[in-house]
What does this fold into?
Amino acid sequence: MREELRELMQVERPRIVEIVSWAAGNGDRSENGDYLYGKRRLREIDRRARFLSKRLEHASIVDPASQTTRDRVFFGARVAYADEDDVRHDVTIVGCDEADLTRREISLVSPVARALMRGRVGDEVSLLTPNGTVTLEILEIAYPH
It folds into this structure.
């Protein structure tokens, strides 16, 4: 998040300000696409920067390696579970801003993570889906060293 905020404020925002300044000098602003788009983009950048700043104020770094209760699912756990069709899924439970399904990282507030939380190997947990309740079995729990 810090890197994204830095990129927005030190690279992208100054570039857009330069474009808006140039476009404003070209005359009629009401029909100037560069000016109108630039102003809209500046508002988007400022909104995202405010959001990131507030998130960073309240963010705390949690080291999953320091988890003492390693036999239960908590934040930072790498969990293997099987669904009702015996299909194995491997996921890591991460923060809301870090979730990335391409890396099999799910948010701790996602329905799957919430169902798995506090479970132990061998536990069967219920996941409420739009098609009804699904049972998941926890196969493995691991934390980084």
